[in-house]
Amino acid sequence: MKLTPKRTRSDSAKAAVQAHQNAAQAPIEPPSYVTLPEPCKPFWQAIVTSRSRDLWTDADLVQAANLARVQYAIESATVGSDEHAKLTRLAMALARAVAVHPTATTGRAADQVNANTAEREARQDEGDELIPRLRAV
């Protein structure tokens, strides 16, 4: 007998409603028992917005705060130094622990090929007079 509840399909109406409810809420804050220095807040926001709000647990948020602190520390470490390498490895491990690494947030690289190809072709497409293209100025 399966003990875990059945997950809602990501392409269902229920999932769409949940996504809109999540988006309407205020940004996720660290748990009250976690101290997060102000310079780490931009990293925190990038981390907690990279996955669905309703999937975060308090334990995940503690690890997310640790990841934000490590990412901030990486900024001050000399690139190529032992400290930079250690912090980078720690950041990668924490990202895996809270499922905010690229495979968890955007999918397998093999699954991204079509999206990457379509975007590359769109950048190269000059279009025609009937289909205007947005271009950076």
Written account of the structure:
This protein is mostly helical and 137 residues long. The chain has a domain of 52 residues. It is built from six helices and no strands. α2 crosses α3. The N and C termini lie far apart (59 Å). 14% of the residues are buried. The mean pLDDT is 80.
In whole angstroms, the N-to-C terminal distance is: 59 Å
Q: What structural class do the secondary elements suggest?
A: mainly alpha
Q: Tell me about the biggest sheet?
A: none
- Mean pLDDT across the residues is 80
Number of separate strands: 0
What share of residues is helical? 55-70%
Share of β-strand residues: under 5%
Label the overall shape. Answer: extended
SSE topology string:
HHHHHH
Which descriptors would you attach to this protein?
137 residues; mainly alpha; 55% helix
